[in-house]
Structures
1.
Amino acid sequence: MKKAYSFILVSVLLIAVVAAGCIGGGGETSSPPPTTVTTTKVETQTKIQTETKVQEKVFIRFAGWSAGETEMKNYQRIIGEFEQKYPNIGVKYEVIPQMFHENILASFGAGVAPDVFYVDSSWAPIFIDKGALYPISDLADKSFIDQFYPFLLKPFMKDGKLYGLPKDWSMLALFYNKKLFEQAGLTRPPQTWEELEEYAKIIADKTGKPGLAIYLGGFNRYVPVAVSNGAPKPWFEKPEDASWFDNPVVKETLTWYINLYKKGKIEREQQGKTPYVVQPSDVGAGWLGDAFGQQQVAMVISGNWMIPFLADQFPDFKYGEDWDIAPVPAGKKGRVTMAYTVILGINAKTEHPQEAWKFVEFVLGPYGQKELVVKAGHTLPSIKGFENDPDMWPQHKKTLSFKYDQMIVFLWGPKSGVLEGKFSDAMASAMRGEITVDEAIEVMKQIVQEELSS
């Protein structure tokens, strides 16, 4: 047992030595060096580079005419809101008080046309034909366009393209002074054109104030008289269309309209009587709104644009208490009014079409029309859905309630704007007694033939 034990002990020692040599590496029998643990730390760095791009502010020019201080203030306010929302776009508002469309067309020739500008429906064909308008259908989504009343879009369409969206619209209505009516013993507004003239005489005789103010000329104000009495709607596209003035109803109603001033102002003053019809300047006013608001006349026929002007400039002259609105008088064949609309057109050559569109979209969209048109009582909204809005002014709601047999959009051919001005000049000459009614008619026929002969 002892011998066996010794053998086992020797074997164990040998194994231990061999093991020690293996652990030492190199066959050395000294104690093994301490074990070294190496830790590799990998650090990943992400470099974030922030680039600040300074976007240059873009300025666009916006030009329009003005229906008075109220409209200008409303636009300045909405422009301020737009610039807050789009701080990289500045808008310069320019008001052109006279010969607006002629001046805009001239600015194209000089290379200084504004980026965004008004275009009346009567001038739209001329601007479209001259290539002055950027097709709005190339900028706006169909869903945006579909918000607008279709009848307001028609004057601005050609060859399947739409060249503008209406900012609002208005219709002619009769504004009358309730207190002057009461003094004259009149209990309701006139219902017919003949009654309109009769009322004007009664008011002048009993109150010493002219009963009616009109513009000298104003072919578009005369058209409802003609059509409501049975004349066809005027349309001038070729020289032969001058024959519209040969229609017996046209001659009769044009004679009556021109004589409103000749008899109501010139002849009355020759008789030493108070005129029953005047133009605004005859009573020291700049336009019909002033003449009515100053209570210098009892009646005017004007559009919805006059409503906010009266509220702003003549706050003590109160709707419903001092004045009211009625439909345009009727003729023998029905009741007809004019509808007016204006687009915010975009310059076809603008260097900033996208910025110009952002401005147009802001002003004409639901928010812009809610603020500028509905709440401010500017005119009537051109997009659908606001008819019963609680913020719509009662004066505007009342005009929408009137029933008409026809509502004519201000457009009678490809050169309506030019014809309107020249027709009105001829009518004004006849109203002042410088030419006869027959001579005025011949002049207007010649204007059609000359303008449309090319």
2.
Amino acid sequence: MRALEAARCDEAAPRPAATTRPLMLSSSDLMSFARDMLSHHAIRSSVQGAGRQLRVELQVGPVQDLPLPEGNPSTFYLPDRHAAEVLIDRRSRIPALWRLDETTVLAADIAYDVRLPEGDGPPTLAAASGAQLADYQLIRLYADEYSGFAAAAFEARPERGLPPHRIYAIAGTHVFEHRDFRSWASGLTFGRAQFTSTAALELIGDAAAYARHPRGGEVVLTGQSQGGLVAQGVGYMLQTVLNAEPRPHRLAHVVSWGAVGAQEVILRMIGQARKEGGRGNGRDLERHWAASQPGYAEAAAVWATLVTRWRAIPGGGEAAAVRDTTARMRVVGYFFEIDLFARAGTFPGTTLAFPTALILPDGCDLLVVEALIGAQGGALGVRLESHFLNGYRRAVSRGAIALARPALPAKWPWTTDVLPVLEGAGKLWLEALYLEGPAASLANWTRCLAAPSWLTQRNRFCRRTFWPGCAAEETTWCLIRDATPGAVTAIPG
């Protein structure tokens, strides 16, 4: 997305004044520490206190003079809730959680730069991209060649005076740069294909070990769009793993940006796992991955712990169990009232709405839609900007968290009704992409031919390449059927 940002106006030819206007916001629903938050951003503001109430007049500008779409009247601002409830959490050892939340916006953006390997190599991240988080050190990258899951783990540098913690940033749908249709297909499953992936389960195992370690710290999962949705699923599963042992652990956080709520898809995952023990993948795929993926054993161990916990839930108590588990975490989602994608699913935590006007770009910036099509995007372009990370980064840089208010997004109930159909379509698409891509690669054929037996598009039982349909020259893909003795036991398919 960063490559789509428009260049600043040429100093010799600035944007005409008629296309811009100053932006002034006024609010009295402020937290006691809003003054510190706004001064951190050097925003022109006037803050007055009267009794227990603060009032702010925020001046930003000039911004583009674009029409703002109407918010949905079904969005409900909670009169008895306050943003301080999630920005001050006594369970956390991080004193300024709002600073942490602001950092996750940048981390979520960086996650989009994680590149999955073309062959058997590791995932990569350009050094310049990771260096944007100067107070953090890149610890590990995660990538899954089946679902397109991609994530980066950053650990706070102690020399910067930060309390111990890690940020696990998860990429969302790759729509513009580095278009990856695996993430599109995973989106049809509401992110389930990604948060149950082998790489995500490895991440959960690593994060749980860090949260439990005496020299470890708190764990923060974040992402935007589908990345935020997957962060909710991974966060819930992480807390379930932490609950499986009586050992003490640090607090786990989920900070989601403009994301669909994950509660319904989490419940579908639990229901299927309780009955079948699997994560929704086919038997042939699970058997192949057990014999070929380096981290499969660790992922299978994490999955086994999850299934054991889920099977102990009393019948009909799944939703209550999910709520109890997420209540042990800090789960917050930020959204703009006009963001269409925030209307699907139930968010398992507290959602905070930003003032819509903070989306507007500066006079010399462009909306993402404007950069793509080279023309004004109008109200629709502004609405789409409310979902893209550009809009969130811009708002946060203007102190948006200081003005955030607890709210319930307007909902589209039909989205969960069509979830089973979409999920099925997403799985079929993912399998087709995998068989046409990674499973047809030379590296994968090398693994198949080293196994006692394998299956192909034309023959389900191969032991010799001269058997009909068993050689790479005769077919496209292969999957390991029988692994060598002592191999990892596959997750049920």
3.
Amino acid sequence: MTMYVPQEFAGTTPGGRKVLLKFRQAEFAERLAATRRRMRERGLDALVVFAQESHYWLTSYDTAGYVFFQVGLVLADDDSETVLLTRTPDLRQANVASLYDDVRVWLNAEDANPAEDLRAIMAEKGLQGKKVGVEYATYGLTGANARLVDKALEGFCVTEDASDIVRTGRLVKSAAELRHVRIAGKLADDAVRAAIKATRPGIPDTVLSGAALTSMLAGGGDIPSGGPLVNSGSRALYGRGIGGPRLIEEQDQILVELAGSHCRYHVVVEHTLVTGKPDPRQIDMLKVAGDALDQIKDAARAGVALGTLDDIHRRVLDDAGFAKARYAACGYALGCTFKPTWMDVPPMIYSGNPLIMTPGMVFFVHIMIPDATTGLTAGVGQTFAITEGAPEVFSDLPVQLYCC
């Protein structure tokens, strides 16, 4: 087995603290500078960062601490310090593995209100009366914490939703990011192969999930930020994973959708497996799904509106008689993400989405046909990057019905 253990890079914060980073320091400097340019274009004096993906992309800070109140402060001035407000369990990794200049801690107590601590930091930085963007659209800011923030900043400064500021930069991947994406694709393919190899009647379908995860971790990957989704039998028509194992039968179907993850960058693949004798109707369904996927990849070109891809999805499936079975969207963007999901949205791939595809954008497209009338399912999916020509597909596995 090939192992893809990621490299770490030495760096130094402006204050002189030595740190280890997931990318070269120059790349983080470019990301921060571009983010600040977008902030100034919007007239923002500062950005309050709650998305863990933003922490990671801007500073290399990698943690699960975003499930609590955790916030970064980025001022629009190029020479200003960045500040992180977090909890004690995250202090060490913030200090040794992130480029945050100033790391502060708030302490749990019955009367603790970290939003007021944030306001105090903002007052230190001269932000009273200024215009500040807030990352609201993230799992890193619960509704309860958002209410605390809004109350603490009411009358102190002018706020607006700026959830798109960092996300806009993250949408187009750099060459260094794409190297991790390519490795994630290899890990995903290996995980599917491991799941196929493990498949046999009489075992719980969770054995397939275990084989897939073991393969990814042994290959130098991370535990992905979602899944694996391994649904068998009637569950194969579900659009989400479900808790509790099910025994695979002699004649059965299994939908496998999983992500390979390398340095938090994800590649998703989807395949349909069967035990016993394949149903001819299911073989035909897979041909329809595969045809739709091929046509979408042919159309995925720089300069084309993203919604065009879902137009194809709808046309091919509707023409084949699956209008009632298909989904209302056929995929989404991928990137560096944290639990609870590998979906890096927006953008979603739905008909009418006006986003123009540009080189470096990475999308997962899946064609799912859960046919409730027959009880059969057909699901295929691949991840690709937009280039100057044909998309770069990050999977080598054939798109077919896998008989186990």
